[in-house]
Amino acid sequence: MSSLRQSPAWQGLQTLAAEQASTADRAQTSPAAAIPICAEIGGLHLDASGQQLSQPVFDALLQLVQERKVADWTHRMLQGEAINQSEQRPVLHAALRAQTHDRHCDSGAISEALAARQSMRRLIDQACSGALTGTPVRHVINIGIGGSDNGPRLACTALRTALLPDMDVRFAANLDPADLHSALQGIDPAATLFIAVSKSFRTEETLANARRARDWLQQQFPSEDSAMLVARHFIAVTGNSAVASSFGIPAERVLPLWDWVGGRFSLWSPAGLALAFAIGMDGFEQLLAGARAMDQHFQSAPIEKNLPLLLAMVDIWNVNFRHADSHAVIPYSHDLRSLPLWLQQLEMESNGKSIDRDGALVDYATSPIVWGSAGTDSQHSYHQLLHQGTALTPVDFILPLADGKGMAADRALIANALAQATALSHPDSPTRRGRQPWSMLVIQQLDAHNLGMLLALYEHKVFAEGVIWNLNSFDQPGVEAGKLLAQQIARGVQPGGVQPGAGKNAEAATDAALAALVKRALS
Ligand code: F6P
Fold first, then answer.
1. Is 511 exposed, middle or buried (0-12, 13-18, 19+ CB in 10 A)?
2. Number of H helices, E strands in the chain
3. How far apart are CA 336 and CA 330, in angstroms?
4. Which of 91, 148, 472 most suits a substitution to test ligand 1, by most atoms within 8 Å of the C-beta?
5. What integer pLDDT is reported at residue 483 of this predicted model?
6. Between 20 and 30 A from 232 (CA), which of 150, 226, 295, 308?
7. pTM of the model
8. Ligand 1 touching residue 203 (CB < 6 A)
9. Angle of helix 150-158 relative to helix 448-468, nearest 10 degrees?
10. Mean pLDDT in the chain?
11. Which residues contact 6 (CB under 8 A, 6 or more apart)?
């Protein structure tokens, strides 16, 4: 049995779950025994009372956080220890938003991040003045995928009210050419800048879209040299400057993406350049300041008032002791509609693992499936299941009370969010067996600072869960294996038919039926 399951706190939680299960469905606390759980920092307020935890359960979860030494691991991470063991790398995304005097955090990384931000500012100024492309840049197209797309895309959507009027920022991620094709509609080529964002600069989707963008430039300016066009209209953000340079991007237009920043934690780095174009460098700094405030809260607030730890604790209870295998995130905000997508990568790529840090197969559940979309649209889709279905599905409601400019959210929208939460915890539901656990995150105003806090909150929650589950939350070996297989299959199948050897490669696709499908689809 794993050391986690043998730990006193875990055993205590198991006993409590069994006791509650004997009196109610799925270890549910009786409404009378449920305790209020609230905490806040600045403009972010968490109410997790809808989780209906009893005091003994809460105390045992608190003990679990202590026993699993989450605070020690946090310290090790911030100091730059190579806690991403499989890749032998430190994990320093918090350094990206730290200040020079933040002594808890690796000072070398902080200096590099500050220098990179100066380069970001310089490039934005040059682009806007016309010094970069010969014409003031009005269109920026971010070419990247996964962590090199999700964060800046989410933030550009969420900070709608802070977008600069003269800057049009778009995103292209998918391997399907249709994605870039849509992004290119109606733009002025002379005033266009492409940002190729790829930590590895080897990602198939990003390289394909970068080549397509280069071809598009060539079509727009047929008399000009292709290499000149790339040098004029491209910036790269990467940890692999050699490949960016062989693509033709001049060194002074290549911003760093260090190996100590995971893709899904990279919004705060130069990978957020498209966002910085969209809201300005000062807005970007506000986002970082919000994230830093959350970093400090995570390190210093007591466990019972610590937002990331509280969210992690309720997740552990729901996943491991109430057997919830999915988790819905429902922002009551059109501007936050992309949040579930960003969280899917953050949570599932980080903790969707069944091998622990020591290489052993885990004997407990890890990341649930994260899903969701904006309310109230969601109410007309899957809320029926949340209210009366058989699956236990914890919900995070995210509720901004005002937009980034302070304009109050629609009263009916707020009322609907509160009504849904109230209905989920209703003890007398005639058709549901038991109540659905929920947390509510209320955001005073959806500005850059508070968005930074919100995203860093989830980053730290995911980290704390990984520590408790004894996972390395910072690698993604399953994804890498899939990429390799796609390359093998693609190499074996060339236009015009299946090439010799394709069968062998197709068989790498695990079984004969699948191999046949590969041949049929690609020949
Ligand atoms: O999806 C796998 C992944 O490696 C992510 O972790 C990463 O964010 C994405 O691909 C893009 O990688 P890169 O920035 O190297 O292009």
1. exposed
2. 20, 13
3. 9
4. 148
5. 79
6. 150
7. 0.93
8. yes
9. 140
10. 93
11. none
Asked whether the predicted pLDDT for residue 503 surpasses 60, the reply is no
Beta carbon of 145 within 6 Å of any ligand 1 atom = yes
Length of the chain: 523
Calculate how far, in angstroms, residue 190's C-alpha sits from the geometric centre of ligand 1: 30
Question: What confidence tens digit (pLDDT) does each residue in 247-293 have?
Answer: 999 999 999 999 999 999 999 999 999 999 999 999 999 999 999 99
State which ligand 1 atom lies nearest to the alpha carbon of 206.
Answer: 16
Residue 327's φ and ψ, nearest 5 degrees, are -145, 120
Residues in Cβ contact with 173 at an 8 Å cutoff, skipping those fewer than 6 apart: 143, 144, 145, 146, 149, 153, 179, 205, 209
Two structure tokens written together for 1: 């049995």
- At 361 the pLDDT is 97
Atom of ligand 1 nearest to the CA of 200: 15
Does ligand 1 have an atom closer than 6 angstroms to the CB of 148? yes
452 Cβ inside 6 Å of ligand 1: no
Alpha-carbon gap, residue 54 to 46, rounded angstroms = 18
* Lookup: tokens for 24: 């109610």
What distance in angstroms lies between residue 279's CA and the mean position of ligand 1's atoms? 24
Closest CA to 246 of 220, 205, 211: 211
Measure the CA–CA gap between 234 and 193, rounded to whole angstroms: 6
Closest to 413 (Cα-Cα) out of 337, 339, 333, 329: 333
User: Does the pLDDT at position 518 exceed 90?
Assistant: no
**What is the pLDDT at residue 486?**
80
Question: Among 516, 496, 468, which Cα is nearest to 2's?
Answer: 468
Active site residues per annotation:
349, 380, 483
Beta strands in 288-433 (DSSP E): 326-331, 369-371, 395-400
Q: For tokens 């300005």, name the residue.
A: 280
Check whether 144 has a pLDDT greater than 90: yes
Q: Give pLDDT tens digits for 293-329.
A: 999 999 999 999 999 999 999 999 999 999 999 999 9
Query: From CA 224, how far away is CA 344, in angstroms rounded?
Result: 42
Residue with the smallest CA separation from ligand 1 atom 3 is 146
* pLDDT for res 523: 66
Taking CA atoms only, the protein residue closest to ligand 1 atom 9 is: 146
Task: Evaluate if residue 150 carries a pLDDT over 80.
Answer: yes
For the stretch 191-247, pLDDT in tens is: 999 999 999 999 999 999 999 999 999 999 999 999 999 999 999 999 999 999 999
Residue nearest to atom 2 of ligand 1 (CA): 479
